[in-house]
Amino acid sequence: METQIKKLDAKALDMNVIAEAGRVLREGGLVAFPTETVYGLGGDALNPASSEKIYAAKGRPSDNPLIVHIAREEDVYRIAAKVPKEAKGLMEAFWPGPLTLIFPKTDLVPGKTTGGLATVAVRMPSDKVAQALIQAAGGFVAAPSANASGRPSTTTAAHVAEDLDGRIEMILDGGQAVIGLESTIVDVSEGKPVILRPGAITKAMMEAVIGPLDVDAAVIAADSGVKPKAPGMKYRHYAPRAQLTIVEGETEAVIAAVNRLTAEAEAAGKQVGIIATDETAGRYKKGLVKSLGARSCEEEISRHLFEVLRSFDETDADYIYSESFETAAIGQAVMNRLLKAAGYRVIEV
Ligand code: TXA
Ligand code: MG
Question: How confident is the model over 300-335, as pLDDT tens digits?
């Protein structure tokens, strides 16, 4: 099939394009669209055939549930059987925005969309293109990140096309995703809320609103042996083709170690990529150096992580060495993704 790519300006939405994309979704087709976190691969969440197409297009295992996106807060009550008061507090504070909540589902949601689970993940994005598309599609759009399964999530329409061109009907191009990492996921389906995936809405931000939250052990695990509660978090993810290693320690020691490792690898005829920051990039003497942005600006680091991981696949790098990041706020989400991309390969210096 030929994939149509349509540019959209969130400040002056072309409603003809939105209507056309909405029609594609209502007729069971797939449309990739921008959100404030990453691009999503959308299908009608209430149509099991659409969910099957999403799994096929991504090459994703079908036991891995999809997030249902809504554009009006009241629509959550049609797909969630129970909305506890903690969830209401979080919705009021952070919706629309980069927060996904997991509820017990109603019968309206097909099992194909939830990977057979009795719960449903729901998110209300703040991106204007996303909101308009969801409304035009009838209100419920299932959307995983719009990447081929296993590759880094996509933050631009060009990245979506790299992975999905010819496999979906349409891509809406709304420019670069502002946050660059997927939403925070919190399970509110039973008892105390539990963070299943860290993101831009941090534990501290949520605790300021509703009090203590638990964190799924797999989120903070330093190895891959702990089984996560979000099914998708167990799969190999985000991995670049080159072997990625995180180098952790004091800045000067990290720079010295990366320079030494790079020199050794190059002497052995290998190509090396380095994931640096603006503050350090000039200190690496060999290798292909890419900066995520200023270390002092966590938002810049998160916005560029997937783009930089992806860009190394266009090179002949055999090894990539990455600096490590503080896990204060969104830094925890950055390190969670980086550790997975590295298969938990970390060198302490
Ligand atoms: O920011 C985002 O969340 C993006 C944009 C497009 O909204 N979407 C996204 O979807 O990251 P995806 O499918 O790539 O990741 C969703 C994660 C998966 O790890 C999945 O297993 C988990 O959410 N998940 C979905 N439904 C769940 C449920 N009912 N219970 C537990 N985990 C669930
Ligand atoms: Mg994903």
Answer: 999 999 999 999 999 999 999 999 998 778 888 999
Ligand 1 pocket check: which of 82, 100, 133, 196 to mutate, most ligand atoms within 8 Å of Cβ?
100
Cβ atoms of 215 and 203 closer than 8 Å = yes
Residue 225 has pLDDT above 70, yes or no: no
Cα separations (Å) of 246 from 64, 84, 90, 93?
28, 40, 34, 35
pTM higher than 0.90: yes
- Among 63, 81, 64, residue whose Cα is nearest residue 119: 81
What is the average pLDDT across 283-292?
A: 97
> Coil, strand or helix: which one is 158?
helix
32 lines ligand 1 (CB under 6 A): no
pLDDT grade, residue 234 (50/70/90)? low
Question: Does residue 180's CB lie within 6 angstroms of at least one atom of ligand 1?
Answer: no
Enter the DSSP assignment of 183: P
Q: Which of 182, 184, 189, 302 gets mutated to test ligand 1 (max ligand atoms within 8 A of its CB)?
A: 182
Q: At 24, which amino acid appears?
A: V
On whether residue 47 sits in a domain, the answer given is yes
Q: Is residue 200 domain-shared with residue 270, that is, in the same domain?
A: no
Residue-number span of the structural domain to which 276 is assigned: 243-348
Whether residue 40 is contained in a domain is answered as yes
**Three-state SS at 290:** strand
The verdict on residue 283 lying in a domain is yes
Closest residue by CA, ligand 1 atom 21: 232
Please write the tens of the pLDDT for every residue from 130-188. Answer: 999 999 999 999 999 999 998 999 999 999 999 999 999 999 999 999 999 999 999 99
CATH code of the domain covering residue 292? 3.40.50.11030
The ligand 1 atom at the shortest distance from the C-alpha of residue 235 is 19
Instruction: Tell me, yes or no, whether 92 and 43 share the same domain.
Output: yes
Same structural domain, 55 and 189: yes
Mutate to test the pocket of ligand 1, among 185, 188, 233, 306 (most ligand atoms within 8 A of CB): 185
User: Within this chain, do residues 16 and 100 fall inside the same structural domain, yes or no?
Assistant: yes
